[in-house]
Amino acid sequence: MTPRNPRDIERETRPPRVGVLSLQGDFACHRRTLEALGVETIRVTLPADLDRLDALVMPGGESTTMLRLLESTGLRGPLASFVASRPVLGTCAGLILLAREADGLPFPTLGVLDVSVLRNAYGRQIDSFSAPVDVAPLEGPFHAVFIRAPRLRRVGEGVEVVARRDGEPVGVRSGRIVGLCFHPELTQDLRLHRWFLEQVAGIELPASAESMARGEGAA
Ligand code: GLN
């Protein structure tokens, strides 16, 4: 019999562990959503925080500030290695950081997702809005919050569009990488996080949290 990898054994005996990049932005809302799904969350601010994660979420916020902080904290290199091979969900500024091309930034993006984004393309903070979005892997519309959101100007070949607003792409997937122009963590709807964890990252959620997230068994 082949000896079992200690890392696999450790993974099977603990709850799934998901990092949330927490340099700036609305990382707290992502952590709440992930924890509602029975996942242990780790605030990622230092290179060592990326060790032993099953997946990573990169939140919305201000991509210029995040890029500056990635440089000054020394997190950029380790983060680039993580997103080159592991499951990652980027929302809004998180999507901008993952994109191959984006405008008006002080440092290059990580460039692992073959899309081009136009930042702040819907106008200023005051022009933020919410709207129903069609998300292909989910049944029924998702109520999406857009805050100074980027627009997807180009979606590369082999990148799948998973969410559309009035036909326009607002969410994409390339293998184990998902990028969304909007903020699923600002609603009570856990479906997009659950889809990412289960279907994209291949994480098995604890059964009780999963059935509660589906609205079953809640009193
Ligand atoms: N406008 C922000 C930026 O360019 C993104 C907005 C957001 O993450 N809600 O970084």
What does it look like?
The strands form two sheets. The chain has a nine-stranded mixed beta sheet. A three-stranded mixed beta sheet has the order 5-6-9. The chain has a single domain, classed as Class I glutamine amidotransferase (GATase) domain (Rossmann fold, 3-Layer(aba) Sandwich), CATH 3.40.50.880. The chain is of the alpha/beta class. The protein contains seven helices and twelve strands. Helix 2 links the parallel strand 1 (about 15-20) and strand 2. It binds glutamine.
Name the descriptors.
219 residues, alpha/beta, Rossmann fold, three-stranded mixed sheet, 7 helices, 12 strands, 28% strand, globular, binds glutamine
- Write down the oligomeric state: single chain
Summarize the amount of helix as a percent range: 25-40%
Number of helices, counting only DSSP H or I runs of 4 residues or more: 7
What's the architecture, going by CATH? 3-Layer(aba) Sandwich
| Estimated radius of gyration | 17 Å
Morphology:
globular
Per DSSP E runs of 2 or more residues, the count of β-strands stands at 12
Overall SS class: alpha/beta
Number of domains: 1
